[in-house]
Write a structure and sequence with these properties.
Distance between the termini of chain B: 53 Å
Order of helices and strands of chain A: HH
Shape of chain B: elongated
Number of helices of chain A: 2
Helix content of chain A: 55-70%
Shape of chain A: elongated
Number of strands of chain B: 0
Oligomer: heterodimer
């Protein structure tokens, strides 16, 4: 580690940034596409409870995608909370 | 040295800075949602204000962190803090007038460093801390944010390429609002903390609090309210530059930009880097322009912004140093009162100037014609 630039932190920020910042929206998009695909691939059979298209596989894919995104958001909020509430460290003795 | 009158004035000035920090940065979270119509301008600023308030309360363990790694806190007096805040506020107001999204954190840091140098010389500044914690992250963060946002934009368009435009816009608008809310929350946490730190520093400098104390609850409460009110007022000039000036933004791009900003800000904070929200948000928005085929990034606008970023630290430092020199020459409480009166007069003048080509929730989304103000013939030639 360099005294001026913390390269290991930068690499982690880039990699996790890509996973969270680009990967999660991509998952959201996959979920969206799955939901929208429903009505075209299969005609919903008059079931009034059908979610958008009614194809259970597509709906399940969408649900999984959205759940992962929501879980990640919850984790993000927890991270914010943790930054503000660090584990108590022994206070350094001041003059 | 104990002087409660000056302490009260410094606290009020710090809250005023927090307020400018709020309205200067509304655009970081909400500019893209406003530009794509995912949220109406007024709803957007109200939501962002509320989330800033919540965000500020999420982190309650605040010490005088912003200054302790950058300047020698033993040299910081109330005069130094007042002059530093004056530098930060002036630079924030000037850049807002020109609609330039510059970093409020840099304005504050620059102001405090300038006044510290004027008070105690260059040796009171921790130059290594300044370079490794402020300058290098500031240079890298927009690039990382742009990379993430460009990747995200490319993925979103690729995945959703078979969808109809209408259903695609509908879905991505929801995602966009969600990710913009995360940015607002992170902003409240990051930026309100900086003012809490400064007020705590002033309380310590005055001897009201013991060295190494945490921010008292009233400091957290007042800072949270100041930043969320500022956010709610909405820095429409900056929102317009970010939402309309840099790149023409579509909802998939908006979602990619805000997700990238939220991820980069939160990740960096957990690694101990307190980044400028502005630098990250701007980098993300440029990234969405790079990631979408055929999208145009207005590099002229970006360049103007970049030069303002380079100037932020030195200029606010100069104002901070000048303010300290003046306060010190007059001396005592009167000196501090005089610089605060000058600050108030300048702020009123800048506000008056801004009324001449007013930007608010009505014209924030007007077609970009090369300038911040939608219809300003005198500047139109410069485009």
């Amino acid at each position: 580690m360099n005294a001026w630039v913390n390269f290991s932190a930068i690499w982690k920020i880039v990699v996790f940034g890509l996973i969270a910042g680009a990967g999660l929206p991509a998952l959201f998009a996959i979920g969206m596409v799955s939901l929208a695909r429903g009505p075209k691939t299969q005609t919903a059979g008059g079931d009034s409870d059908a979610v958008v298209g009614g194809n259970p596989v597509n709906t399940a894919i969408a649900a999984v995608c959205f759940l992962i995104v929501l879980a990640a958001i919850a984790w993000g909020i927890y991270e914010i909370y943790k930054i503000g509430h660090p584990a108590p460290t022994p206070a350094p003795a001041t003059k | 040295m104990k002087n409660d009158l000056i302490l009260v004035l410094v606290v009020i000035t710090a809250l005023a800075f927090d307020f400018t920090n709020g309205f200067h940065d509304t655009g970081n979270a909400m500019a893209t949602s406003i530009a794509t119509g995912a949220l109406s301008p007024r709803v957007a600023v109200a939501l962002s204000g509320l989330l800033n308030l919540v965000g500020a309360f999420l982190s309650l363990a605040v010490a005088a962190t912003i200054a302790s790694g950058l300047v020698n806190t033993a040299d910081v007096t109330l005069q130094v803090v007042a002059a530093g805040l004056a530098g930060g506020i002036i630079w924030n107001l000037i850049t807002w007038l020109f609609g330039i999204p510059s970093s409020s954190s840099h304005a504050l840091i620059g102001g405090v460093i300038g006044s510290t140098i004027a008070a105690a010389g260059g040796s009171a500044v921790k130059w290594h801390g300044l370079t490794s914690k402020v300058i290098i992250p500031a240079a890298l963060s927009p690039i990382i944010a742009a990379l993430v946002a460009a990747t995200g934009t490319w993925l979103l368009y690729r995945i959703s390429r078979n969808m109809t435009t209408a259903s695609r816009s509908h879905g991505f608008r929801i995602g966009q609002v969600g990710s913009a809310c995360m940015v607002s929350l992170a902003h409240g946490t990051n930026d309100a903390q900086k003012t809490m730190g400064v007020i705590t520093l002033a309380l310590i400098a005055n001897g009201t609090l013991a060295s190494g104390s945490q921010a008292p609850f009233w400091v957290i409460l007042s800072c949270a309210i100041a930043i969320s009110l500022g956010t709610y007022i909405g820095g429409w000039r900056v929102i317009r530059t970010l939402g309309k000036g840099l790149v023409e933004i579509d909802s998939p791009q908006g979602m990619a930009a805000e997700s990238s900003s939220a991820a980069v800000i939160l990740l960096s904070s957990s690694f101990g880097y307190s980044l400028s929200t502005t630098h990250v948000a701007t980098g993300s928005i440029i990234g969405t322009g790079l990631g979408k085929r055929g999208a145009e990034v207005r590099w002229g606008v970006a360049g103007r912004m970049g030069s303002a970023w380079l100037l932020t630290l030195p200029c606010s430092a100069l104002v901070g140093a000048g303010a300290y020199a003046l306060a010190h020459a007059v001396g005592g409480s009167v000196g501090v009162i005089i610089i605060l009166i000058i600050l108030a007069v300048l702020a009123a003048f800048i506000y008056y100037r801004s009324r001449k080509n007013k930007i608010d929730h009505n014209n924030v989304n007007a077609e970009w014609s090369g300038t911040v103000a939608p219809t300003e013939p005198e500047h139109a030639a410069a485009a």
